[in-house]
């Protein structure tokens, strides 16, 4: 079902000038001189206003003779940046217990560490490091519930390199120490 948006030409023009990703998929920008259509968030050089047409869906743009932009890839449902972030998250979930550096993660997805950090923060409002920390604490919480491992064993099992970082991260995310967390779980079961 096609959803028409009620934006004027001027409003859509403002969105593409701002590279506003919130409007990706709601409309597409077609450039008459290049015969290419893009997402509103495309970072390519901006065309002259007189050379622009807007379409509510990509099929209409293709029927008018435009081809998809190779940079922003509007024919792909999710944006390329969202795809990179999804790949990073799945890598973090699968390798949370390893000693990961930003360079290792960026090498895995094929972008520079600086670009990855900026992109990840833009998409998730967190850094890859803080996201990894949350995954590790979730795993630690699960181990505290389901095993008899000591806090120290859990600390190293989930990938923390120092106990002080483990306790600090656990306290900041769960508002208690790992021991208090386990004790509260025991009290709930009794």
From TrEMBL:
<keyword id="KW-0489">Methyltransferase</keyword>
<dbReference type="InterPro" id="IPR018060">
    <property type="entry name" value="HTH_AraC"/>
</dbReference>
<dbReference type="InterPro" id="IPR016220">
    <property type="entry name" value="Me-P-triester_DNA_alkyl-Trfase"/>
</dbReference>
<keyword id="KW-0804">Transcription</keyword>
<keyword id="KW-0010">Activator</keyword>
<dbReference type="InterPro" id="IPR009057">
    <property type="entry name" value="Homeodomain-like_sf"/>
</dbReference>
<dbReference type="Pfam" id="PF12833">
    <property type="entry name" value="HTH_18"/>
</dbReference>
<protein>
    <submittedName>
        <fullName>Methylphosphotriester-DNA--protein-cysteine methyltransferase family protein</fullName>
    </submittedName>
</protein>
<dbReference type="Pfam" id="PF02805">
    <property type="entry name" value="Ada_Zn_binding"/>
</dbReference>
<keyword id="KW-0238">DNA-binding</keyword>
<keyword id="KW-0805">Transcription regulation</keyword>
<dbReference type="InterPro" id="IPR035451">
    <property type="entry name" value="Ada-like_dom_sf"/>
</dbReference>
<dbReference type="GO" id="GO:0032259">
    <property type="term" value="P:methylation"/>
</dbReference>
<keyword id="KW-0808">Transferase</keyword>
<dbReference type="InterPro" id="IPR004026">
    <property type="entry name" value="Ada_DNA_repair_Zn-bd"/>
</dbReference>
<dbReference type="GO" id="GO:0008168">
    <property type="term" value="F:methyltransferase activity"/>
</dbReference>
<feature type="domain" description="HTH araC/xylS-type">
    <location>
        <begin position="86"/>
        <end position="184"/>
    </location>
</feature>
């Amino acid at each position: 079902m096609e959803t028409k948006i009620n934006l004027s030409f001027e409003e859509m023009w403002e969105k593409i000038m701002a590279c506003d990703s919130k409007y990706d998929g709601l409309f597409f920008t077609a450039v008459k001189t290049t015969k290419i259509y893009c997402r509103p968030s495309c970072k390519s050089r901006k065309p002259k206003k007189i050379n622009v047409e807007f379409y509510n869906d990509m099929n209409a743009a293709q029927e008018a003779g435009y081809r998809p932009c190779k940079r922003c890839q509007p024919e792909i449902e999710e944006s390329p940046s969202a795809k990179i972030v999804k790949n990073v998250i799945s890598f973090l979930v699968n390798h949370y217990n390893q000693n990961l550096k930003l360079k290792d993660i960026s090498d895995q997805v094929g972008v520079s560490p600086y670009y990855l950090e900026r992109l990840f923060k833009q998409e998730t409002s967190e850094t890859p490091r803080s996201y990894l920390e949350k995954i590790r604490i979730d795993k630690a919480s699960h181990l505290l519930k389901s095993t008899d491992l000591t806090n120290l064993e859990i600390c190293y099992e989930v990938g923390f390199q120092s106990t002080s970082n483990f306790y600090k991260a656990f306290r900041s995310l769960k508002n208690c120490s790992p021991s208090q967390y386990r004790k509260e779980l025991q009290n709930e079961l009794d």
